[in-house]
Amino acid sequence: MNRFLRTAPWIASAFAAAFCMTGCHQKLRPTITDVSASTAGAQDQAAQDQGPDPAAANEAPSGAAPSGPSYTTEAPPPPEQTGAAPAPDDENYAEQPAETATQPPPPLPDYQQPPPPADGYLWEPGYWAWGPNGYYWVPGAWVEPPYEGALWTPGYWGFYGGRYMFYPGHWGRYIGFYGGINYGFGFFGIGYEGGYWRGGHFFYNRVYNHLNTRVVHNVYSYNAGNRGYVNRGGTAPRASFRGGTYGVQARPRPSDAAAWRAPTAPRMSSQVQHARSFQANRGQLATVNHGRPATMAISRPIPADRNVRPTVRGPQGEGGRR
């Protein structure tokens, strides 16, 4: 009896502690909804706390704000409700068409990006090109820019009057119009969030690039939000052309026009050779791979052409373009 009286206070204390821990845990534990809301709020706050987007410097000052949404991925009304197809306006924002096809290119596949080989290389996303055997995939690759401060505006396919035309990319101080195509890796259809130039060095955004920080040293993190597929390379098939019933309904912005009026240079011969080297590869043909190319991207970088200089369009600058 005395032994029980001596141990009773300890037993009561243990029961009280267990009851308190259970009750407190049930009271303090947030529900799944609470956790989700808290996480979402923290992410929104983090996005607001990042400060100015350093990659905003990639877009040319336009002097005027867009009058509406830059583009939409919603399909337009059927052709019979829209009347005649509009005349191409791409010549005001892109190089002259280099290829023409009568069928649409396949959707853009999802793939992994290799890390850059060294500081200063820029990413050229993969794309569908047209050849004697139909569409074939040109693997994404890191490219040595032709001059300091150069940015790569990707090429794109546009649909007009029953034809698909490929407008090749170009180099320039600013990112221009590339049809609203979401290539991933920072190319969401408008602008470029994969990095920016500062003080003669290119800084890589680790949010949208696969980086080896032992090789590249100018690295930062900035989440630009849901401007498109924010995951590296995307997670689902994406439209690979502008216009038509099933293409991206992109509209150029004032900054795109300003970027095109600034000095630019066409794609380098090394980039053209890179594309042509995969033209006869059966694993790259859409008719063979059914949208899943054998080689999505390559780790071997594309070297720069020497003596490439940007020129201005017009009577004095047009002759220097190719």
Description of the molecule:
This protein has helices spanning 2-28, 32-49, 79-82, 254-261, 269-276, 286-289, and strands at 71-72, 99-101, 122-124, 127-131, 134-138, 141-143, 151-153, 156-160, 163-167, 170-172, 195-198, 201-205, 219-220, 241-242, 249-250, 264-266. By secondary structure, it is α+β, with helices and mostly antiparallel strands. The strands form 6 sheets. Strands 2-9-8-14 form a 4-stranded mixed β-sheet, with no helix packed on it. The longest helix is centred in the N-terminal third of the chain and has 27 residues, at 2-28. The termini are far apart.
Oligomeric organization of the protein chains: single chain
Helicity range of the residues? 10-25%
Estimate the strand proportion: 15-25%
Structural class: alpha+beta
User: How is the biggest beta sheet arranged?
Assistant: 4 strands, mixed
Radius of gyration, in Å, reads: 26 Å
Contiguous runs where pLDDT drops below 50 for at least 5 residues: 1-47, 64-85, 228-236, 315-322
What is the residue-mean pLDDT, rounded to a whole number? 78
How many H/I helices?
6
Instruction: Provide the spatial order of strands within the biggest beta sheet.
Output: 2-9-8-14
In whole angstroms, the N-to-C terminal distance is: 104 Å
Shape: globular
N-to-C SSE string, H for helix and E for strand:
HHEHEEEEEEEEEEEEEEHEHH
Total tally of structural domains: 1
